[in-house]
Amino acid sequence: MSRFRFTSxxxxxxxxxLDCALAAxxxxxxxxxxxxxxxxxxxxxxxxxxxxxxxxxxxxxxRIRLWGIDAPELNQICARDGRDYACGxxxxxxxxxxxxxxxxxxxxxxxxxxxxxxxxxxxxxxxxNRDLVRKGWAVSYGGYExxxxxxxxxxxxxxxxxxxxxxxxxxxxxxxxxxxxxLYERIANWLRGIFRLSNMQGGTT
Length: 205
Known about the structure:
Layout: H1 13-36, E1 43-47, E2 49-53, E3 56-59, E4 62-66, E5 69-70, E6 78-80, E7 83-85, H2 87-99, E8 104-111, E9 117-123, E10 126-127, H3 128-134, E11 139-140, H4 145-153, H5 166-173, H6 183-202
Parallel strand pairs: 4-9
Antiparallel strand pairs: 1-8, 2-3, 3-4, 5-11, 6-7, 8-9, 9-10
Helix pairs in contact: 3-4
């Protein structure tokens, strides 16, 4: 009877290097979290609003991008009932109507690559991010997938006609490159927030 010997392959130098690099990266991230977690705190802003477009606004001079959603760009054109319409401006009007002349409250801790606070905002009990998606005037962009599905089923807002998702429209027409509000972008934003605070504490701008 033949005997078989099973031996495990020894890891290559490349594999050992990659394993060590991964371990070092994890330790670095853990160290950063421990050292900086208390510095990356959620910010709350409240005040009178200037609505820039369907998903960005200015509160008391601070620029805010609504987290987890993506509304049509201001100059974006969509179609409904066989006719084109300015869906980007319509989305901005919808957000303006949801706010009115009220003083809103926004909370967030991330900053995007343009220095805007990524935030969730409320007008009283009304959740602006969620309601824009639910009414069909923004799409999910890292959050609010359930609300998007409901709006699509009911043919609400943009879903009543044909439109390009804002991310696709930007890729064809130019504009600000917006990272998807997913895990990797959130990590990148978190790191930006850390270095932003470090620069502020160091007296640089």
